[in-house]
Amino acid sequence: AQKVTQAQTEISVVEKEDVTLDCVYETRDTTYYLFWYKQPPSGELVFLIRRNSFDEQNEISGRYSWNFQKSTSSFNFTITASQVVDSAVYFCALSGNTGTASKLTFGTGTRLQVTL
Amino acid sequence: GAGVSQSPSNKVTEKGKDVELRCDPISGHTALYWYRQSLGQGLEFLIYFQGNSAPDKSGLPSDRFSAERTGGSVSTLTIQRTQQEDSAVYLCASSLRWGLAEGKDTQYFGPGTRLTVL
Asked: Which chain A residues touch B42 with a CB distance below 8 Å?
């Protein structure tokens, strides 16, 4: 069975602070994909990044960066110089290569509150 | 281009009534998924369709739930004899194709339908 754990339920930071959202996953699949989605107050899930299990290169996109470490089964997400518009719930998700390959297993989400 | 659309955005119904929720995927996307988001259960997979293949119904919580996809495009999720525990946001997503094809299985979500069962 697949499992995604986001231990941080809620994080509050002041604008311009850096913040890291943790994601730990469990899977028996040899090939799998990891995702991050953002859910702003409007409710729509917005795709942020997709990462495959055989590519451990970290990725940076503007103020966002992702650190994938297979050895610790973690896929953490860092926002640099946070802004109020970053306030949202962030979900980490996993899909594998057995059974229903494209079915996403989500973590419980981390609510990020960025204040002035 | 247009994203995934869902209707209605909100639905209030009485316990025991049937409801239908609609999803229009992104044009050209062959895979379509339904998820449910509730306070107690988080985001959970319900069902997915890929082209003309038989759907994967492994996430449907009971036989009161069913879904169909007509013409490989629009999908309808039907909940019969609704119960209060069915209250949730029902999210639809689509992807270009299914499986772990590089980048083509990324799921894009619609705005959801908020269902309230009184």
From this structure: 106-109
